[in-house]
Structure formats: structure tokens, C-alpha cells
Amino acid sequence: MTADATPALVEDKQQTAAGPRVRKGSAYPRYLAGKVAGAAVSLLAVLVTSFFLFRLIPGDPVKTMTGGRQVSAEQLAAYREEFGLDLPLWRQFTDYCGKALTGDFGTSYQFRAPVVDKITEALPNTLLLTGTAFVLYTVLGIFLGTRSAWRRGGLGDRFNTGLALTLYSIPSFWLGLLLIIVLSVGIGPLPGMFPTGGMESGGEEGFAYVLDVAHHLVLPVVTLVAVEYGQTLLVTRSALLDEMGSDYLTTARAKGLRDDLVRRRHAVPNALLPTVTLIFINLGRTVAGVILVETVFSWPGLGGLFYQALSVPDLPLVQGLFFVFAAAVILMNTLADLVYPLLDPRVAR
Amino acid sequence: MGTNDQKRSLPHGLRLVALAGAAALTLTATLATPLDPAPRQARAADDGKKVLTVAVAQSVDSLSPFLAVRLLSTSIHRLMYEYLTNYDPKDNHAIPGLATKWEPSPDKLTWTYTIRSNSAWSDGQQATAQDAAWTFNKMMTDTGAATANGSYVGNFEKVSAPSPTKLVIELKKPQATMAALDVPIVPKHVWEKVSDFSEFNNDKSFPVVGNGPFVLSGYKADSYVRLKANKTFWRGSPKFDELVFRYYKDQDAAVSALRKGEVSFVAGSPSLTPAQAESLKGADDIQVNDAPGRRFYALATNPGAKAKNGEKFGDGHPSLLDQRVRNALFRAVDREAIIDKVFRGHAVEGEGYIPPRFQDYFWKPSADQKLAYDPAEAARLLDRAGYKKNGDGKRVGKDGKPITYRVLCHATDPNDKAVGKYLQEWWGELGIGVRLNCLDNVTDPWLAGKYDLAFDGWSVNPDPDFVLSIHTCGALPATPEETGATDNFICDKKYDELYARQLTEYDPAKRADIVKQMESRLYDLGYMNVMAYPNAVEAFRTDQIKSITTMPAKAGNIYGQDGYWSWWSAVPADSDGSSDNASSTGVVVGVVAGVVVLAGLGAFAAMRRRATAEERE
């Protein structure tokens, strides 16, 4: 038995040693194909949902569009034809899907402009605001989360987590208004230093324009960072705390590595998985903008556009924006799925 | 150590990035302070231009006068293009615009307008009767061009321009509103190149050719609309060089912008709230204008929605078809309390349909006719109508079920919700339940007639034809599937007869008398309970605007006037030092704050470096 057992053990070891490499090589493309296919199916589901979901809103789009104005039957018929609303539902659906696949989401009822134009007009503004905030609160959250976990229970940890929880629970519009009063209008001896709203003063060009936009960017970014960094901090802290009792860290310390290096080179990379998930989810949400912050600071982004579209309701615009928002989340989740195996090869098995 | 240093490079880089980010933000704060659009900039920019900045909340739907229907867009068109006539800011009567005079033929079917010869388009070409004729004809023949103002030409038979100064409009039947055609006249030589009027938004190429007091010179969606003064405007150039409408989606932020001096004027949407007005009253260099409004604020009942073909639809409560019930509801609304508690005094108690600022048409009920607040009388009326209380104290309908009215309200209007709460209390004491149905989009249930009562309100024009027309049988939809111009499906034969008479009465005094009879009829019918005339509460900076014309001139409003008087007449204040002093203090403090933060960051980095050095040792 003993003689029989030895080769088996050796064989097992060989399989184990070779296993991950062999499986990684063969499993990752399959894993990748699966995730991409899943994303494509999700996108199709979103396309179908976006068409039918908003048609559940009661009422006639043309009546809504022309509400309050005298409109002849001929003009109503012309509107229905113009927007394709005279066609049977299945034809509207196939037309919608066919056009959507080519990037055409129709014409906005209220703005009489292609939906794609309205979205591409507002998208860069949202990306600038939420993208800048995203980078800052992610870096800040990971940095402070790591510090807090490493010195858990200390004054710094208690202060950091307390402040993060407090800011995270503050409504962003309230914090925004507070910042406007304090840093924009000025209070007491503190004079106003930032614009109260908008993205630009208008009329500037070249570098002056860049500075002007940067100036307008400060308060909304500070608001977003203040409210959002806490989440990253807490997730990073929690993940790192889970890792801190691990044997490999004791081994690393036993090797004589500095505490700083043990944290950065060994503990943090292993604790990053949940944080990466959060980062990608936040990145997806970034496209949707932050409606309340955009409203308080009158930022001309997708959030405000979505609110306007819903309040009419402007069906083509609502559908187009819904698709963009959902597609961004799906895309980012898929990217996160594709990145996981690089951080932890076991995920792709 | 060498290895350690190499390993440190990435985190160190990250730290640098973080520091750079923080420093960039701080620097932006300090660098940007001089760029800060502070009061001095609103008054006089660096190049010496006088700029008047107005805070607005509403998005531009279109800059094409053929498509735009929103207040902001149509107000901008008033500034860009001359209309045939304008309204006197003193008393709202029609005065010359592009037309210098106008007169009807003896048979009342042909109107001849004399077009002024001193109005030029901003590209230098003369504005003529041909431009006006082309504008009207385009609206009559192109459904796209009729989108916004098609109703104005609905009764037109033919429009022609026999000469550059003569415009002739032939009507199908007489109408008294021919001096109130609020249609922007556009330059034919520019607009005849447009191929599809339903899609052309007039917002890509600047400056836009016009002949009004201002020329549209720039636009960025939901950021700003920029107009420059038309130096050759026939009535005289505006005193400000530029007029900028800036977006503030949050009204509190707009008020903050006014406090700071970033904007010269704020009106809210449509008014500042009582709290905002109170907070601004004591502020330096700010004047609150609490003017009688042009709106009425009403509670409308569903009189049983129906189409012109007689087909009924919707689901309005049948008890509301009884005039005694409607009058009882009227009498159970304490309008004084609404003025005091909801509007905090920034409104006038409602009576007739047209607000008192339009004196020619203002009507109020006599003492005998008035349905004053009297809950006891309201209860008696309901008893007499057969809607008695059951054992639970609830009034029951003919079907034996307790009556609960669905009241349609605007989710975005806090006044609706507040008044709704009072209705629940007042009508609850009568034994009637109230269920508030507050929605962002009230249009759909409204047009479908799926409500019992609804909060209603309209801005009234100097010529009241429109707000009167929306209660005629002719405004009902042709079929339940179509849209009419009706407000609440009211259809009353006597009211219609009066409406037809006033429309063909060219004598102003006689017409006003008929209009008052219509208001009286509407009051008695009880379909519309006008609860208040909300004031137009707005504010402006006196250190930026020295003077500005209100409409009416005595105690009137500034924003949303019938005409371009406010912005055309605004006189810039002389630059003085007060706001500049505050602003320069801001620069100094901003720079100091930036230096302190940068020093703090530097110290932090140094401490970190020392800590790692100690670790190394």
C-alpha cells in the first residue's frame, strides 16, 4: 500500500503543480468568451427592456408632447408618423432595435434633436465631473482604508472611519449647498472663492477656458469625493483586516521586511479583489452621473438630462439614456470579470 | 537598499499623483479666484463690456421660433425678433412693434398693417412686409412651422404683402385679437433656406440674424444663452452690452449666485419661495421685487370629460357634475388661510378668472354672488344635494360608497402639496376624503380625464383670448383619441355664446364687458375655484442694475413680461468699490488658504519621508 501510495502522491503533486498552468491556459479563453457572451445577452435584454418598460408609462406620447396647445387632427397624425408611433408595436420594436444597433435612438420629443446628439453633448461633461471625482475618491479611499486597517483601533483609524461614515451618510445635495454657502458665497470673514454653479462662465477660450472649467469643477468634485470616498475606504479596510491574520504576512515579517513593504507588497494586493469590484461598479455608475450633485451645481450632464427626459416623458431620450447607463454598468462589470483572473487565477477555473 | 528603493518607486509615484491631484485642486482654487465671475465681472467685464446676467432654471426646448413653446425660449425670441405689435409697459394696451399701425376693413374680415421702414435685420437688410407675409404663410402651409404658433393663423384665409410696408391679412371670420399676434417675424432671406422646419433648431450658427433689441450670439445647452445688444435697434440700443441667461437648476443655488453677485437677477420658477424672499430682503445691494402676478392659481373640477363628437371618457367623480357640490367645495376652501399660510402673504386672494393687474378685464363677484368661506353652508349644500353623512361621518355618493376625491397635483410644486393638506383637513370636516395624486407628469391623466380635481394655473396675457378659449366647447378634442386645446373639458353653451361675441367685438370697452360676463358665468358654474393670484417674487442686484422697467410700470414684474421692456430698459449701475473690495478679499484669502493647504501637504510629505527614513535605519 505504501509502495502503491507513493507514485499516486507524486502523480497528484505533478497534477497540482501543472494543474493551474494547464487549466489557466485552457480555461481563460473559455471564461472570457463566457463573460463576453453574457454581456452581449445582457445588452440585448436591456435593449428589449428599455423599449417595453417605458411604454408601460400610461398616456399617449403625442398628447403629452403637445399638451396644452391646440393641435389639429392632421398635425397629430403628422407627429405620429414623424415619430413612427402610427406603426404597430412590433414594427416600432423592430425599427427601434435595428436603429439602436447602429447607434440611432431616434429624435427627442422635447428638443427636436437626435437623441445621440443630446447624449454626446452631455456625456463628456458627466465624465469630466464624475471621472475626476472617481479617481480622487478611489485613491483617497484606498490610501486611507489601508492606513486605517493597518493601524486598526488607533486614533487615526477611529477618526478616518468616523469621518468617512459621517460624510457617507450626508445627502450629497445638502453638502453641496453647504459648500456653496461657505466656499462660494462666503460666510463671515471667509470670502467666496468658487462659482455657485455651471460648468463655465461662457466666453473664455484656450487655456483660460480650461482654468475656468477647472474652477467650476472644484466644488462638485469635492462634494462627490467627500460623499463617496468613505465606501472605498471601508471596503478596503475590511478586506485588509481579513488578510492581516494570514500566515504569509507573519512569514514576510519573519523574513525581516519592513512593515511598510509587508503592507504594500503583500497584504494590499491580496486584499484588493473586493475593492476592484467596487471600483468597477462605481466606474459604471460614473456614466450615469450623479443627478443630485449635477442639479445642485447646475452641471450640464447626463443626470439632469435624464431627469428632464423622465418628467415629460420624452420616450426616445429616456430609452437612449437608459440603454447608455445600463450598457456602461454591464461593460464595467464585464471588465471587472476579465480583470479578476489576472489578480487571482483561481477565479477563471 | 537599492532593491528597496526600486520597490518604493511605484507607491511613491502614486503618492506623487495623489499629491499632484490635491495640489491641482488647491491651485485651481487659488488660481481660479481671479477668474471668479464676481460682481465686478457681471457689471463690467475686463474689456469694459456691461453684462447683465439672469439666472434661469428652464431648459431651452428650441431656438427656432416655429418650434419653441417654453417661457424661456419664447422670451428669448421676443428679444431676437420684432412682432407686429407690442404691449405698453404702463397699461398693457397694444402699441406699435414692426407694424406702426393696423386697421380692419368695414366687414371686419381684412386687416391691413403698415410695416415700419426703419427696422433692419442684423445683417443689414431691411425688414419688410414680405418677411411678415412669408412667416405667416409658412405657418399656414407647413405643419412643422405651425408647431408652436399654429393657433394664431388658424383663422387666416390669406396673407399677402402688396408692398414692402403693407401687410394684408384676410380672415375666415372676424377676430378681435389681431393686435395681439405674438408671433416672431423672421427674415425670409435667411429662413427660406431651411428645408425641414420640424427639425431645424436655429442653434448652430451665430450670430443669428434678427431685428429685436438683442442678437443671439451664443448658446450652449443647459449652460448659457448669450445675446449682444443690437446697436441699430429702431427703438434704441439696450444700455447693457450683453445679456446672458445662465442656468441654475437648483433655485437655492441661484439665490446664492445672486448674493454673491454672479448673476444680476433671479426670478425662480415661477417665483422665489417666501423663505428665499425673506432671506434676501436684508441683504446688501439686493432689491426684492414682490409684484402682483399675472398668474392665477386654481382648483379645477373634472366636469365629465368628453369629446366634440359627444363621446364621454375619463373617470371623473359623478358627484362633481352637481353644481351644488362644486359650490359646496368652493365654500369649504379658506382662501385667506391659503394666502397667509401657504403663500406667506406673497399672493392676493383669488376671485374672478383674470388677475387684477389686467384692470380692463378684472372682475370680482358681488357680495350676493360671492361664494365666501362658510363650512356650515357648504355642509347644508351637500345635504341638499343628497350627499349625506353615514354613521362613520363620511359623505356617501349615489353608489353608497364614501366620497374620496382624487386631486391631481404637481409633484414639483410645494404649494400644491401644502394646499392639498389643507383640503384634506377642510373637506375632511365635511366628511369628504381627499387623495392627493402628485405627479411629475400630470399631462397624461389630465388629457385622459382621469382625475376628480386638479391644481391648475395659467399666466394670463394682456389679451385674455387664450385663457378664455380653453373653456369653450370648441377646445374639446375632436374624439377621445385626439388632443384638444381644452383645459378642463368645460363646455357651456352660454359661455360659448359670450366667447364668440367678445371675439368679434372690436370696441375695447364693449369687449371687456363681455369678458367680465364670461368670468361671472365661469364663477357661477363652479368648475374653476381661483384661490389666489400669486405674486411675482424676484430679486436683483442694485449694484449691477441701476434701474429697470417693470410691467405694469407701477408695481409690476420684471421676468417674463409681455414685451422686451425689462432687459431692453435696464441701466447698468456705476461701478463702485463695495463688491470689488469683498472680491479682492476673496482673492487674498483664497491665495492664503491655498498656500496653507500646500504647506500642509508639503509638511505631510516630509513627515512621511522622515518616517520611512527612520524605518530604514
UniProtKB/TrEMBL annotation, chain A:
It comes from the Bacteria. GO terms for cellular component: plasma membrane. One of its GO terms (biological process) is transmembrane transport. Residues 123-340 form the ABC transmembrane type-1 domain. The keyword Cell membrane applies. Keywords: Cell membrane, Membrane, Transmembrane, Transmembrane helix, Transport. It is a multi-pass membrane protein. CDD domains: TM_PBP2. InterPro entries: BPD_transp_1_N (IPR045621), MetI-like (IPR000515), MetI-like_sf (IPR035906). Its main location: membrane. PROSITE patterns: ABC_TM1. It is found in: Cell membrane. The chain crosses the membrane at residues 31-57, 126-144, 165-187, 207-227, 271-297, 317-343. Residues 1-21 are annotated as: Disordered. Belongs to the binding-protein-dependent transport system permease family. This is ABC transporter permease.
TrEMBL record, chain B:
GO terms for molecular function: peptide transmembrane transporter activity. Its main location: other. Residues 1-31 form the signal peptide. Residues 95-469 form the Solute-binding protein family domain. Keywords: Membrane, Signal, Transmembrane, Transmembrane helix, Transport. One of its GO terms (cellular component) is cell envelope. Belongs to the bacterial solute-binding protein 5 family. This is ABC transporter substrate-binding protein. It comes from Streptomyces hawaiiensis.
